[in-house]
Amino acid sequence: MLITCPECTKQISDSVSNCPNCGYQLTAERVATIKKVEKGFAIVCLAVLVVFLIIFLIDIFSSKSPNNNSSVSATSSEKSVWEQNQDFARELDRMEKARQLDRIEEERRAIDKYRQ
Ligand SMILES: [Zn+2]
């Protein structure tokens, strides 16, 4: 398993007795402390991601309702340029959010894998 050297912040193996990069001496106790800190950091990252996900979901639900009240009397062929731009902007926004969600899911999986 890889840990971060507290001296030079390089990724090093937890089985070595000295950091190959800076020579920092790694005792079993120090390795245990580093692992504990890194596990704590992973949990904090996960918590931050969950908070972002909640904010993101609230944003989706709150932005949905006002759009339903806008007039939809014009057919698609009669849409003004402004309306088309609005549709385009909404589509871009939707794609960006989907992309962000994918990235969050990817990071969550990486953290899960790391914690095992
Ligand atoms: Zn080092």
Summarize the structure.
The protein has 116 residues and is mainly alpha-helical. The protein has helices spanning 28-68, 81-115, and strands at 2-4, 11-13. The protein has one domain (2-63, 76-115).
What low-confidence regions span 5 or more consecutive residues with pLDDT below 50? Answer: none
**Looking across the biggest beta sheet, what order are the strands in?**
1-2
Query: What is the helix content?
Result: 55-70%
Small molecules (ligands, ions, cofactors) in the structure = zinc ion
Count the E strands: 2
Q: Could you state the oligomeric state of the chains shown?
A: single chain
What count of domains describes the coordinates? 1
Element pattern in H and E: EEHH
**Kindly, what is the distance between the CA atoms of the first and last residues, rounded to a whole number of angstroms?**
10 Å
* Beta-strand proportion: 5-15%
Gyration radius, rounded: 24 Å
Structure class: mainly alpha
| Helical run tally | 2
Largest β sheet strand count, sense and barrel closure:
2 strands, antiparallel
The overall pLDDT average reads 86
Q: Tell the overall outline.
A: elongated
Task: Give structural notes.
This protein is mainly alpha-helical. The chain has one domain (2-63, 76-115). The protein has helices at residues 28-68, 81-115, and strands at 2-4, 11-13. A two-stranded antiparallel ribbon has the order 1-2. Helix 1 (28-68) packs antiparallel against helix 2 (81-115). It is elongated, with a radius of gyration of 24 Å. The relative contact order is 0.09. The model has no long low-confidence stretch (mean pLDDT 86). Zinc ion binds next to loops.
